[in-house]
Each structure stands twice: as C-alpha cells, then as structure tokens.
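hey so i finally got around to running the thing on that chain from the lab meeting. sorry it took forever, my laptop kept dying and i had to restart like 3 times. anyway pasting the input first so we r on the same page abt which one it is
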Amino acid sequence: MVQIDYYISLNSPWTFLAGARFHELVKAHGASVTTKPAKFADVFAATGGLPLQKRSAARQAYRMQELKRWRKELDVPMLLEPENFPSDETPGARLVIAAELAGLDAVRLAYEIGHELWVRDHAIAEESVLKTAVTRAGIDYDDLTSNSPEDATLVEIWDQNTQDAIEAGVFGAPSFVFEDGEVLWGQDRLQFVEGRLAAS
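ok and heres what got predicted. didnt touch it at all, straight out
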C-alpha cells in the first residue's frame, strides 16, 4: 500500500481545490494517507516563502489569475476573495488532527472545512461552521470532540507536523510526500500523484 503524507493549510485555496480530487484518488487506489495540517507561516519562514500580503503585486495578481483559471477548469463555485479569508485555522486544525488520530476520514474533513471558507464564506474558526463541516464529512462531531486528546496535545502534533514538513522539503500547500521522499507540491500536480498510485 502506498503511503502519502498530505501536508495542508486549511486557509489555502489550493488545498481546497485539491481536496475532493485527492480524496477520490485515495479511495480509487487504496492509498494510505496521513493528513498533516502544518503552520505554513513557519514553513514559509524556514524555506524562503512569503505570506500572501507580503508578496509582490505581480505575484498577487498572478495568484488571482490562476484561481480564476482553475475555478473555471474544475468548474468549482469558489469565491476568489472571501471576506473570512484568512481565518484562524487553530480549531479546524485540531479537529483534522483528532480525526486523523481516530482513523477517520481526515482528507474529506479538511476538504469540507475548506468548502465552508471558499464556497460558503464562513469563518472556519467558528464552532457551528466546523460542526457543519464535520457532519458533512460523515463524522459524528460530539463523538470526535469528546474522544479527542486535549487541545494542548493536538497543538503539539500540529507543531510536529510543521517540523516534519520542513524536514521533508515541503514549502507550500498542499504537498504530497511519498515514502521515498518525493515531494509533489500543488493541486496541479495531482496527475503525478495519480501516476504513482496507478503504478504501485
């Protein structure tokens, strides 16, 4: 079975655009995935990246062009500039990590949280919003939260995921890291993810 570490940012539109398609690939090929939310501000700081607001005007303009192109290409009804972007990722990251620890569908949950932000323009730090996303992912919210480790433990894992990402050579979200160390960065690299899965 192919093992993939899936490094994500819940605020990332690219993570959202990858989510549903990656979920389908995982199911179709029976891959084993560890979903690893990471603190990408720290990843950027360690790898020479810049947060969106600090990028040049040219880079910000190109990002917007790419979002428009991919929204059309994938026929996804996403908002280009949701009012609630960026949101505090902390509560959502804790839930995704808790789902991963419990053996639940963390890939689908991460996608549904992204859907709340990029389609519905909801603040993904709000409990009611996260509860909706958890339910849509087919997970019992009360069961997940009541059986999850303490918040401090979940944040420690989030920090460890961040360090793991840096050590693996990850510098952007989403990134797919295979057991042999190959890193595939971006929702536009899913064809190469599929190629590796199909060849396994």
